[in-house]
Amino acid sequence: MEKRATMHDVADLAGVSQATVSLVLNGVPNARVSKATRRRVQEAAEKLGYRRGKTHPVPAGRQRVIGLFIDEVSTTPFAAPLIEGARDEAALQDVTIATFCTGNNPALEQAGLDMLVAQKAIGAVYTTLMTREVIVPEAFSALPLVLLNCYEKRLHHPSVVPGDIVGGFMATEALIKAGHTRIAHLAGEYQTAEAAVDREKGFRQAMAKAGIAVDESLVTLGGYSIRAGRERALELLSRPDRPTAIFCFNDRMAIGCYEAARILGLKIPHDLSIVGFDNEDLSANMDPPLSTMVLPHDEMARWAVGQLLDGFDGLDADERMQKIKIECEFVERESIAAPRI
């Protein structure tokens, strides 16, 4: 899927807040925005092609509202692109996204559904902050439904998730292309993050394709935090046969690797190459900037909303029950170089 500009991109280019972009592009009357600022926002939107995505007809007999149900919003930074992507796609048809943070509480979910059904809403997007398998409550059968960042064991609804296996493959491949063969992987926690399993699969597939044997002593399990990354990297990098490159489950663990390298007097990427995953905001501001994978949450949310706006007319059962995986983009910065040892 082609990556489309977001309201955040327009705001960055125009040098204004997202609120100002919303006021200008939605033509809010009496908004206190100068003519120069309006022109700057409009030019930025034109340059980026914002609001020029696919046109979806709003299903007949429905109000211009879609409900987005999400379990959590504060435990990771990933809620924003999921919500904003849905909002931006819906805005193309002047549709409003009503967001319900429920914590998987059935009573809160039912209250939100009752409101949407009473309003004859277009449908609902059932969202989880962490990619995982879910059992969708029966109550959601009251509206057309798409699953975002989650999926069912037996498909009853269309769903979209990130391509974590391909992402792990691409991250590892970047290190291999730089000349590395002794590559460590700081894996995540299998019990709480299905992405940890898939990203490690991608790591192993890339190594196998390149004909490089995986040194199992360089694959360490169970972690997601800066502290875990630092502790595990210190152990690996203190070995006489240390790795020359590390692929980390996420950017936070990569930060820990940076700290470990500095403690041991190793320079990145001169002595050690590192690739992260998630493209958190801080990754571009690290020293040196971290090469990483971008989670396609914005594109995923846009796809989910587009499915609801298209209705499911003319689709057979297989098409309605599809599970889509959207690839993660590799962002090459300055944390990878050829090995010296």
TrEMBL record:
Superkingdom in the source lineage: Bacteria
Domain annotation HTH lacI-type: ranges: 5-66
InterPro entries linked: HTH_LacI, LacI/GalR-like_sensor, Lambda_DNA-bd_dom_sf, Peripla_BP_I
Keywords, in A-Z order: DNA-binding, Repressor, Transcription, Transcription regulation
Molecular function terms from GO: DNA-binding transcription factor activity; transcription cis-regulatory region binding
Family annotation (PANTHER family): HTH-TYPE TRANSCRIPTIONAL REPRESSOR PURR-RELATED, LACI-RELATED TRANSCRIPTIONAL REPRESSOR
The protein, known as: HTH lacI-type domain-containing protein
Gene3D superfamilies hit by this protein: 3.40.50.2300, lambda repressor-like DNA-binding domains
Residues annotated as transmembrane: none
PROSITE patterns: HTH_LACI_1, HTH_LACI_2
